[in-house]
Amino acid sequence: MLDVTVIEDPAAAEVSLDPIRARLLAELAAEPASAAMLATRVGLARQKVNYHLKALERHGLVELVGERRKGNVTERLMRATAASYVISPVALAAVEPDPGRFRDQLSARWLLAVAARLVRDVGTLITGAAKARKRLATYALDGEVRFASAADRAAFVEELTRGVGALIAKYHDETAEGGRDHRIVVAVHPTVKPRTTNATATTTTEPAAVAQRAVTAEESP
Asked: For 167-177, how does the pLDDT look when each residue is reduced to its tens digit (9 = 90+)?
């Protein structure tokens, strides 16, 4: 089982978003189970669960890991192919965000478009690397900083921009024969903290921010 996988096929995305099938995926990510076992857990008839499992299996979201005999019935033990799933913007190709339409470094919506492109690109790289059976070289830095004031946050962003820009200028070689392009994404946004009363998250009003950098590359052809 993979830690996380990216869903690029629109039909697979539609299947995964069905509430019942999403519940079955969650159960099968925790441990393998048969349709009969799942039926008891989710309160559905075994035949109904089988119907949903076949749809999930058809799109590669669950897989057979074994069989066991129970009376006159052979039960198929299924498990999720990943512990968690991310739906790529490729699944909505006609309306996926495009950071190239505009560039406003202070726009939250542009940041969202950049993040969506990151999910799309890394998902494509993972798929290509898996098919080629080659390692995918990536790096990500995730940190949190609390700013005392908006002025400090602005100063941080300015210094961060200069620092990353200097690194890019130092290592970028446009004429390098056999070189490989890498994309660098740096993001600063307020942290999102969970409510204490329930699992729903809310945006904090505190002057905090998360700085993230992701560098991705594919080593497969």
From this structure: 999 999 999 99
